[in-house]
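Review box. Two proteins, two foldings.
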Amino acid sequence: MVPRILIVMLIPGEISSWLNQTNKELCLRYCAYWISLEGRPAVSNTSNIKIGIPKSNVFSGDQLDTLMQRVDDGEPL
């Protein structure tokens, strides 16, 4: 089974406010949150689906490392 996660990033309307890219870095400002979709039932509605994401599920580099390690160890997300 392939793990599925949903990542939602909060961004302002002006792209220059949240993204800066140079030859040396890619900097994203504001915040992203994640939630595992594992075990969620299939739905027939594909246009509007509400999913609650806890604010404690901040998606960061450290969190990505943790998620990847869990997948590698066969643990649930």
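Next protein.
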Amino acid sequence: MAKPNLLILCTDQQRWDALGCANPLVKTPRLDALASEGAMLSHAFCNAPVCMPSRHSMLSGRYPSALGSVCNGIPFPQGTPAIWNILKPAGYFSANIGKLHFTNHANRDHTARHPDYGLDQLLLSDEPGCYDDAYIAWVKSKAPSEVESCRCAHPPAYSGPGPRLTTPPRETTEPYDFQGPEHLTHSAFVAEEAIRCIEQHRARPFFIIAGFYAPHPPLNPPRRFVDWYDPESLPLPHRQKDDNPYGLSDAEWRRVKAYYYALVSHMDDQCGRILDALDTLGLGDNTLVLFTSDHGEHLGDHGQIQKGEPGWDSCIRVPLLVRWPARIP
């Protein structure tokens, strides 16, 4: 048979239960369809519930401890084989579109050259709007007047060149509507450029990662997806009655959850664009599609937000869907 194409749809900070096929409160029709056409692995866990160690481990097949990658800020070891290095001798084209997070992004100049780690194409954007990277360049090429509406604040650890951006907010507890047009989100950028890459390199087997930043905060989905959710219908986080260090009211916690789910729904919509492109190009049957995330999000459970110690499913358990027609039931 022909060598299968490999497509990884990788999100950031997505809980295992932030999919409709795992939780009926979440609206993800495109990924639910993907699950129905393949396999949904219900108990998948990352090797470290922090971005860089998890991604290093997942894409190299080695434990974070073996790589010396035990926290954010430690670069992926140069010379360590990743999946694409192993596939290259078999004739595969390799690309990463969007987030990769193999090096620290908070202390470098994003206009400078980044190591390609042996990838044939690296269109890198590790954050959704605070750096002058591939995403902002894409926005400038499509709608220069909308660049500022697509910005967000720098991460707390930022020490790179230029002034620190402090608005719009980026904490899980500070949701807001995306300020630019829906077609200019970071997720839309990843989808459009992943489709372009597939179209350009479909003549040979490919390994492509579509690196979505969502639903990692800032929780800023387009308004259309916010309107899909009624916060009052959503349950409160799993926590003790007085375990509320962020001081949010019940209504505020429900609003946080609604915006998080809305950002997942927007990402789902953009994944659907990529899956449609595979079918349009006649590549769906011979492409192994894997959907997953680097780690979860506490979302108020146990009185916590974002990620951290690997003690709870909310941050170490991840979604995992695999579709390969005729090979995976």
